[in-house]
Amino acid sequence: MIRDGLSAGAAHVILDAKPSGELEFMQRQSASGATTYLGGSQPAGPTWIRLTRASNTVTAAYSTDGSTWTTVGSTPASMSSTIDVGLVVSSHDVGVLSTATVTNLSVQ
Question: Which residues, other chains included, contact 61 with Cβ-Cβ below 8 Å and sequence gap of 6+?
């Protein structure tokens, strides 16, 4: 996830993997606005995910081998020049905790 600050309602763009393996590309365009679904995919097996910001555009992509990338989507994202980057873990079920294993993490 990339965020335009750490406040609870900050604008953000996220690419997440649900427990089923389905990917979700979502965005909150403005502070305290609604988060909207932009697209997704259902890759098979272990998956690398990536958000790339170039100027005011964020692109979401995934890879099943770490070298060949498939674009999920792109969106305009007007954010500050300095953004916050973080990892999100959610079970998508209020009554169920979830865990995630993260390897090969890189922020550039």
Answer: 49, 50, 52, 69, 70, 71, 72
Q: The sheet that has 70-76: what strands, in order across it?
A: 48-54, 57-63, 70-76
Domain ranges of the chain: 2-85
Q: pTM of this prediction?
A: 0.87
CB 12 within 8 A of CB 31: no
How far are the Cα atoms of 12, 53, 72, 74, 85 from residue 90, in angstroms, in the given order? 16, 23, 20, 23, 16
The string of pLDDT tens digits covering residues 32-88 is 999 999 999 998 888 999 999 999 999 999 999 999 999 999 999 989 999 999 998
